[in-house]
Design a protein that fits this description.
single chain; about 240 residues; alpha/beta; four-stranded antiparallel β-sheet; 10 strands
């Protein structure tokens, strides 16, 4: 579904990605893990059209998308839910969701909204509330729900568990697994390496703008190099 080869990107004269190659197959949950500054968010921004690539290629459903405008990439079914939630706090839950469905005909929005409310029942309970009144966990639900309103076939999630309590982190990863039942493929960036690897099918480790390790998520959980670098005393939890 997604193929990236020798991708190079950065900000001005500062390179961040240095020849990244990876793939995501339909129906998979693939995670990218790495330390702060490794280039994870830059990679997602480049895939979704927010940052132009300097070199390399990106294809989605066998069609090149590198350098396309973000709205055209969304129209093809690739949707990015960014780090930091970015909900519009002076608007209601319903209004935020409607904005996510800007490219859908009005008649299709109700059906999609119903699916979002099935995925996140608390959003249905709070549909008339301002987004500012929601808890951090509920705002993250709203951010993902808004992305789902665009009917993605591939959903990119950037740090969905950031700032959530341990209980909500478990709920969030359970929801990510549920997305597969809705025929949504997931590319996930996470600093919570243990939870991400338990959730994912495959994983890539990004360091200094390069992929340094890849494989089945279960195998990487047992990888001595990864255990030392990212897990510490929490491995096996």
């Amino acid at each position: 579904m997604l193929e990236i080869g020798d991708l190079v990107a950065g900000y001005g004269d500062i390179p961040v990605l240095r020849g990244v190659s990876l793939s995501v197959a339909k129906g998979e949950i693939v995670t990218i893990i790495g330390a702060n500054g490794a280039g994870k968010t830059t990679l997602l921004r480049t895939i979704s059209g927010l940052l132009p690539p300097t070199a390399g290629h990106i294809s989605f459903d066998a069609q090149p998308i590198g350098g396309l405008r973000p709205d055209r990439i969304v129209a093809r079914g690739l949707v990015h839910c960014p780090e930091g939630r970015g909900v519009l706090k002076r608007m209601s839950v319903d209004e935020n969701l409607t904005l996510g469905a800007y490219r859908l005909p009005p008649g299709d929005r109700s059906e999609t909204r119903a699916k979002v409310f099935t995925l996140f029942p608390r959003l249905k309970e709070r549909r008339s509330q301002l987004a500012a009144s929601l808890s951090g966990g509920e705002q993250q639900m709203l951010a993902i729900g808004r992305a789902m309103m665009a009917r993605p076939t591939l959903l990119i999630l950037d740090e969905p568990s950031l700032g959530l309590s341990p209980v909500l982190v478990k709920e969030m990863f359970a929801t990510i697994r549920d997305l597969r039942e809705l025929d949504v493929t997931v590319l996930l960036v996470e600093q919570n390496a243990v939870q991400a690897l338990h959730c994912a099918d495959r994983a890539y480790v990004l360091e200094n703008g390069r992929i340094v390790l890849e494989g089945a998520a279960g195998n990487l959980l047992d990888d001595a190099r990864l255990r030392e670098a990212y897990f510490g005393s929490v491995v096996g939890s």
